[in-house]
Amino acid sequence: MDGETAVELAKLGSTLLFLGVPQYTLIGIDTQMVSVGPAFKGIKMIPPGPHFVYYSSSTRDGNDFSPITGFFVHPGTSQVVVRKWDEQEERLVKLPEEEEERYCQAVRNWEFDRHLGPYNLSQYGDWKRLSNYITKSTIERIEPIGGEITVASESALHKYTPKTVKENALDEQLKASRFSTPSDTSHARGCYYTSIPHVIKQRGIDGQQLTSMNLDKTQLLESVLLEDYGGSEDMLLGELQFAFIAFLMGQSLEAFLQWKSLVSLLFGCTEAPFRTRSQLFVKFIKVIYYQLKHALKKDCTDSSGASALVDDSWFSADNFLHHLFKEFFLLLQDASVVDGDLLSWTRKLKALLESNFGWEFQQNSAVDGLYFEEDDEFTPVVETLDDQVRVKPQ
Known about the structure:
By secondary structure, the protein is an alpha+beta fold. It has 13 helices and 15 strands. Helix 11 packs parallel to helix 13.
């Protein structure tokens, strides 16, 4: 870009000023990561809005790294965020207010400009699709005390959580040698994620109703939306995105488990996608589509292993996602009325899973992107009417 445009972006964009960060430390923002050089002091030209900053300290030879620590920020236009490296704790810390303001003014006076790397705006579109439901209130509601998210403070989770093959694999990766640098996180506390019940228990109803409620999580979804999100679908999707980012980029096991809980809740609904919450599911499928598309990018992996948690176990047909997707695709196939956008995005998601994961959900004839048995006398007829696809039994 020309000099005039660069100056304007530097003025309007936000700035992250990092003081005293050792060489070879890995520092990332959103989908971008760099290895710190001797002159590095931060990042400029950052678009206003939500961002995830994460870092991993290195040994002197740059061959081994500590657990990743990350935090969300939501800077406004021309805002400067300042952090200083604490050598003893090997982490970025906030400065006293007066000292921070002096550094902010120095940034505005261009005193640090030659030490600031530009935010790669060509990757901003990808980040927006991963974070478009995250607001400042989302961050304030969920982030832990102090704001830092790190697997090093989640040791208690390892005792209780791994139950599936995927979770055991994830647990082992989080304890691998690259994360061997010790960290004192006794003061740390996890994120304030919404509690999602795995099983519905309710007094005063008979066994048949209780079984029905556990087979179709629509009623649970409505309850969670009302009681925990004030009826806001976008708040739920914001937490889904928050958890995914903290998991994929921050390598948080707690975040993975929350992401899994929310995904399982939504895919566990059999009525909501087609009647009460069709537009929520259109947005949800789009969110999942872009999350998996980004996670599977070949150039997403870097020296920190930022996407190492998406490994071969994700491609297994025994993966919990495979079962959820398979049931949802069958549900969509059997539905009497399907929103046109929901069908379109589900087809895109299905194609992504088949091409990137190599999953085969069914190998039969296709009707508008969904598979049916060729010789099934009950094969539905699909009619496209305006914005909806109506499926009728023959």
